[in-house]
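Retry 2 of 3 after timeout on previous attempt. Resubmitting C-alpha cells to design endpoint.
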C-alpha cells in the first residue's frame, strides 16, 4: 500500500467523497469507506434556542426573509418566547368591505377583512343603507369610516345611527344635500369596535 502522503489531494471535496476509516464496532475492526456526509451527520446541529440556552449571545444581525413557526402563518410574527403574534396589538376589532348598489335594491358586499363577523347590508331607501350584526357594535366605542368611490358621481357619506346591532349610513349629493344618491359603487366601509 502506498504512503498516504503520496496520494493526490482533492481540490474541492464533496459530501459524497469517500474516506477510509476503521469500523470499531465490527469484530475484526474492519477498514471501511465512509462518506464525508456521514461524518458531518455525526456532529449535532444545535438550534438557535439551544445556543441561547447555553449562555451564548450574538453580536451580529440575523438576516432572513422570514421566520415562520411550524403551523404558523406568514402574516404572523415569531416572538422571542416562541409564540406568534399577528403584529402590534390593536385595541379594536374591525370590519372592512366595499359596498355597491347599482339596481336600487340589492347591496353587494366585497369583504376585505373582518374579525367582527359578517355584516349584512340592506338598502332602506335611496342613499340609505343599514349594516346589521347582532350584538357587535358597542355604543360609544364604535367608529365608522366611509370613502366614496362613485366614479362619475360626486357625493358625501355620513353615519346617521349606531346601535348594538345596526350601523346606518347615508350617501347624498354634494350639489344638493337633500338629494340622496341611489347608485353606489365600491364605497369603502370600515367599522371599528374598540375594547
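Retry 2 succeeded. Sequence:
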Amino acid at each position: 500500500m502506498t504512503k498516504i502522503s503520496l496520494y493526490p489531494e482533492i481540490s474541492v471535496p464533496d459530501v459524497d467523497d469517500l474516506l477510509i476509516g476503521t469500523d470499531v464496532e465490527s469484530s475484526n475492526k474492519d477498514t471501511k469507506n465512509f462518506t464525508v456526509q456521514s461524518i458531518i451527520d455525526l456532529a449535532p446541529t444545535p438550534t438557535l434556542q439551544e445556543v441561547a440556552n447555553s449562555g451564548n449571545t450574538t453580536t451580529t444581525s440575523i438576516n432572513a426573509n422570514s421566520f415562520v413557526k411550524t403551523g404558523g402563518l406568514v402574516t404572523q410574527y415569531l416572538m422571542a418566547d416562541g409564540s406568534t403574534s399577528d403584529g402590534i396589538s390593536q385595541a379594536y376589532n374591525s370590519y372592512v368591505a366595499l359596498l355597491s348598489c347599482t339596481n336600487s335594491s340589492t347591496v353587494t358586499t366585497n369583504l376585505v377583512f373582518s374579525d367582527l363577523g359578517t355584516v349584512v347590508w340592506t338598502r332602506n331607501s335611496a342613499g340609505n343603507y343599514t349594516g346589521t350584526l347582532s350584538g357587535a357594535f358597542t355604543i360609544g366605542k364604535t367608529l365608522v369610516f366611509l370613502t366614496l368611490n362613485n366614479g362619475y358621481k360626486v357625493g358625501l357619506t355620513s353615519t346617521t345611527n349606531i346601535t348594538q346591532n345596526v350601523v346606518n349610513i347615508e350617501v347624498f349629493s354634494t350639489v344638493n344635500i337633500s338629494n340622496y344618491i341611489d347608485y353606489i359603487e365600491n364605497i369603502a366601509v370600515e367599522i371599528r369596535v374598540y375594547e
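Attempt log closed. The helical segments are 36-42, 48-53.
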